[in-house]
Predict the 3D structure of the following.
Amino acid sequence: METKVLVGTTKGAFVLTSPDRRAWSVSGPFCDGMPVNHVIGDPETGDIFAAAGGGWFPLGVWRCSGGDWQFFKGVFEEAAEGLWSLRPAGDVIYAGTKPAELYRSHDRGETWERMPALTAQEGAADWMPGAAGLTLHTILTHPTEPEKIWVGISAAGFFASEDGGATWEPRVRRSNEDNTVLPDFHGEPVSPTEVFSCVHNAVRAPGDGDLIYQQNHHGTFRSPDGGRNWTAITDGLPSLFGFPIGVHPRDPHTIWTFPLNGDSVGRYPPDASAAVWRSRDGGATWHACQNGLPAQDCYFTVLRQAMAVDKGDAAGVYFGTNSGSIFASIDEGDSWSEIARHLPTVLSVEVMAVHSQV
């Protein structure tokens, strides 16, 4: 079985392939060198899907099947500036755009339909964009209850639907037990009852429950009930600020994140020392994992979609940097190696294991 690391960059998609997660080959760039915000894979078929375009390029989804890449424009250019995220869910693929809208495809990316209820909900007209615009960058689904969908929008917040996208509600409430004092955002007061609306990334823990972890502009949070209540789990981390978060494929209490020094002070690792921080107890305690990572003079950034976790016997963890490197750990973060370098700016990292060549 091969492991493939799927990389979206500012200059196309790349695929890193390994038979043993130790020796890696790099292929690409694909997608005609378009900027690719997100790449996902279907391990059952080996197909790859890439959200591409923007700027000088048309918006659409590339699909690679059997080594053949095809481009489907869909309907995105009618209302979108960028295509930011993809999520497979059974026979459906979801896509998120900038400005924030949610789309779905029932034919593996060839045609798309807008899901209008998300932006028709009360208050949507007042959503404020983040620094990168009003982007729908995170889409989560439930493995056994497909009608459950969650999305993260910067800087509007976290939203959930339990009827397949027909209706939506915001889920930004802090739990009654959460007394964490959060800093002001550029002088603006922070609500004592809500998490900050600028979601950076979120992951759903394995199993049939609704445990979700969120990396936010103001810290890391955990929700046991699908986002209805959030509790800060930032204590023990060197910074409140960061973008990506990953969760173990079998242990819902093991998570990884990559803190940065702050919003307006560089957005690089604290003390310029790279470390992935791991928790084995759902965020109650944290441990810095940096064996093999640059421990000094490190000024790269790891973006919101640039971390992924595989399903190996010991889970592999992967992340990409804006300086064009991909780092990997095949022992759940205990040690790291650089498996690719000098790529364009890395925007996303995903991983899949396949039986056939792509």
Summary: The first strand starts at residue 2 and ends at 9. The chain has a mean pLDDT of 95.
